[in-house]
């Protein structure tokens, strides 16, 4: 099988091309941008990270199918993470291209240009991982935060709820799928039978849950509901933001739902065995498809792992299977205690 990260332009449906753009120093290695022919112009699903290498690759790829940056009519962005959104902002500054983003991203967008990391550090402390928060702060380069603020601006359009998007010769449906972020969208082209799934449904990995400056109350609950929502639509070919094209959205959704069922059971078992905080529970669980130990993760992925674990724990509390309390600013979890009448 060909490496999906290899540069180039790949037709995946009539008038739709996949363009993988590089993500230097990122474990995902590339992000798929999709170019949709729109009359004598083109609409892009996602944009890539605002890096010179990625911009040059995008310019070359568009040129190979007869377009220039001035032909890009619109960016439809699945969510606000920098590998999806920031190139759109950069190119808008040069060419005035319109940018659209899901309205659920508004709270995080307000924070990302201020003290995003301070808020994330506070989350990590609440999860019982004080030493991780201290390491993150020690490793933090303030200039990188200034760069992040410079890379972000509000979109031209906030897409609210389910919305029809009319292109020259086709119609897309923008469908809110919160979970990975609060404002994540997928885009459906029912006529061609394809779904641009962003980071919501990925072919080989599970997306991080709630990794954003303003976290939802139950990001995992939102994510599972969004998976079930996607499952109610006719099955389509999956055009993900990371990874190769897959023939069935439904089959991958079923796998993801089963994975999180298993993960919730493992999380409950860890608490039953004596873990109390999200950090302690994360350390008791295996990570990645290779079942790596928590202590083998780098600092960034350790933070993601603890945040993911907290999302599973909070959902178990909402379901009544666990109880939580806060002690000295740290959230503690325990098995729910039922009285005898409830058990009977």
Task: Give a concise summary.
The chain is of the alpha/beta class. Helix content is 39%, strand content 22%. Helix 7 packs antiparallel against helix 8 (249-272) and helix 8 crosses helix 10 (299-318).
Task: Please describe what this structure looks like.
The protein is an alpha/beta fold and 344 residues long. The chain has two domains: 10-113 and 152-247, Ribonuclease Z/Hydroxyacylglutathione hydrolase-like (Metallo-beta-lactamase, Chain A); 263-343, Arc Repressor Mutant, subunit A. The protein has eleven helices and 14 strands. The chain has helices spanning 52-64, 82-95, 106-112, 116-126, 130-139, 142-151, 219-231, 249-272, 278-284, 299-318, 340-343, and strands at 10-13, 16-22, 30-38, 41-45, 72-76, 98-102, 157-159, 163-166, 171-176, 185-189, 194-198, 237-240, 322-327, 330-335. A seven-stranded mixed sheet has the order 1-2-3-4-5-6-7, with helices on one face. Mean pLDDT is 92; it is low at 339-344. InterPro entries: Metallo-B-lactamas, RibonucZ/Hydroxyglut_hydro, Sec-metab_biosynth-thioest, WH-like_DNA-bd_sf. This is Glyoxylase-like metal-dependent hydrolase (Beta-lactamase superfamily II). Keywords: Hydrolase.
